[in-house]
Every structure is written in structure tokens, then in C-alpha cells.
Design goal:
Helix 2 (about 40-50) packs across helix 12 and helix 7 (about 200-205) crosses helix 11. The longest helix has 21 residues, at about 95-115. This protein starts with a strand and ends in an 11-residue tail after the last helix. The chain has one domain: NAD(P)-binding Rossmann-like Domain (Rossmann fold). By secondary structure, the chain is an alpha/beta fold. Helix content is about 40%, strand content about 15%. The structure holds uridine-diphosphate-N-acetylglucosamine. Uridine-diphosphate-N-acetylglucosamine binds next to helix 7 and strand 8.
Length: about 350
Amino acid sequence: MHILVCGGAGYIGSHACVELAARGHQVVIADSFVNSSPRVLQRLQTLVGAPLACHRVDLRDRGAVEGLFTGQRFDAVVHFAALKAVGESCQRPLDYFDNNIAGTIHLLQAMQAHGVHRLVFSSSATVYGDPDAVPVREDAPLRVTNPYGRTKLVMEQLIGDLCASDPGFHAVNLRYFNPVGAHPSGLIGEAPGGVPNNLMPYVCQVAVGQRDRLAVFGGDWPTVDGTGVRDYIHVVDLARAHADALDFLVREGRSANINLGTGRGTSVLELVRAFERASGRMVAYDIVARRAGDVAEVYADPSLAHALLGWHAEHDIDAMCRDAWRWQSNNPRGYEDGAVDADAAGGAPVDAALSR
Ligand code: UD1
């Protein structure tokens, strides 16, 4: 299939591009690069064995989005392009509404205008808020606790309304639990700008010596060891599910909301210990006060993903830590490190891979 991947230069999007290309799909990336690096394109070229077409497009620019569909025919869209920092979304909610919601409306309008009727959407377990029970099933109540989460829920609802209005339009909303890890090559991975908000990139930066100590948010949660429990999922497993979701859309011609997790919970301290084993480095930490908005324990019931997509997570927490560490130790400053770029792409200039 000919697939448009919006946000394909980002952390999860780049891993999905590798998987889609490996399955023989023709991938076209659209990315604004506000939260990603054009250098990822060189790494993707190395992994895929050919350059991927890439357009620098901000989904808020309706004309530019429309332009993506003019002159090329897509069989499906995979939509990752969104802002995703919870704290930032509380400070700048309008930016989140504009980027995430308005951008998605423009994308859906262009898809409909050009008869592109298959969508895989990057949603989040954040739509469950503080769930009443674990493991969390897809029919659990939806409630959100911050503007970022609200944008994910509204985007799911917009997509749902479009599917209801147009019997030919089908979408799979993939609700990710906690994506971590990196491609086993060590060429692509998560490269957060500034201080990481999420646990695994913070642990990586402590292990590599960029940050002194991890602050563990709360040691008095009602969990196995008092620290927060989450369902960490390897980004390569997650990427595979996007290709499986496209196959589902083609095969079944219907829509679905699907959790992506392992079904197993891991506490903060369990993750720290697994990371220490994988890296051979100490991760110094202090237990501090709980973080506002956190919850004790969240993990998925992933059985629908198995039933509908034939998918299940294959990597355990040790593999997640091993691959996260390989990425971090090979690229201490993420895509800012030039050495691997030059090796990977034979020194090709970054902009040569970008076209408009
Ligand atoms: C967070 C977001 C969620 C988003 C997801 C993206 C919140 C409340 N939720 O999920 O909406 O979809 O990221 O991946 O922000 N922790 C520490 N120290 C740290 C960082 C985290 O102890 O420096 C703990 C947290 O308290 C939590 C666990 O590690 O128990 C995981 O935290 P994090 O990686 O931020 O993910 P979530 O909070 O689950």
C-alpha cells in the first residue's frame, strides 16, 4: 500500500515507518519537525535500504495538508502528528487544541476530499484517566485529566463521528500504554528535548551521566513496592501493531478502538533494577513526593489486540531496557550526535531527503 505517515519522523512514527517499509509498503512521511529531527531520515534510509519521501508540513496549515494529497494517491494514513507533553498542555492548552485537534480536522478533511478511507490513529491510554479497575479494557469509561488527554479523546471522537457519517471510512484508534525502548540497531530512538517528562528517558540520562539522580515520584502508592506501576511496551512491538491495524482495515473494513500494552505492570523500582541489569550502570534515585495527576497502577487488558489484529507484545522489560540503553549510549545527545549520521548515510546532506 501507499501510506502517508503524519509525524513519521517522531519517536513512535519513525519505528512504524521501518516496520511498514519492511512489509513492502511505500511510505511517505509528513512531519513539521517541531519535535523531531530531520537527521532521523538518514537513519531510516540506513534501516530501510532506500530513502523515504518526506514533506515538511505542519497539519495546522490546511493548504499544505491538502497539497500532500494532490498528485499522489494514498491507500491509508497513519497519524502520529501531535504535541504530547502533559505539563506543557496545562500551560498552553490552546496550542494543544490547535496542533492536535485542528491539525486532525485538516487531515480528515483532506482524506475525505481525496477518497482516502483508512486511518490508523495514535491514541493513548490517557483517555482512561484514572481507571476504576485494572487491567483496563477498551470499554472502560473514558475521562481525561489534562488538556493533552482531552485532545486525544476529542480526536478519537472526531474520527468516530466521521466513521459514523461515512460508512466507507474506517479507523483504528490504537491506545498506547507506556511506549519505551528503541530499535535494536541503536540507530533510532526517543530523543526528548530538554528535561524528560517520562520515566525511561530520564533513567537513560541518569545512567549515561547527563543527570545526577532520578526523582521517584512517590514511595507510598498502594502497589507492590510503593512506587507507581505502568504497562511499558517496547516501541518495536508498538510499531508492528500499526502494520497489523492496516491489514485489519483492509481485511475487515470496520473500525475499532484497541489497547496496546503487554498486560503486565512494572513498578518504577522494578524498571530501575531492570535497567541497571541491562546497562551495567547504577541509577541513583531519591524517593520524593507524588507527582500531581499521577495514579497508582495502570496496565492494559491487551486481549482485543490479539483477537482483532493477531498481535501480542513480544518484548519483555529486560529487552526494553537493553534497547533503550543501546540507543542512549550510542547517541548520548540523541540525534544531535553526528558520528552515526555520517556513517549511516554516507554523509548525505539532511535536506536532500526533504522535499516539498
Ligand atoms: C505520562 C502521561 C500520559 C502520557 C504518557 C506518554 C501523566 C500524568 N501522564 O504517563 O498522559 O500518555 O506519559 O508516555 O503525565 N516517574 C518517576 N520519575 C520520573 C518520571 C516518572 O518516578 O522522573 C514515575 C511516574 O510517577 C509513573 C511512572 O514513572 O509512576 C511512569 O511515568 P511516565 O513515564 O511519566 O508515564 P505516565 O505518567 O504513565
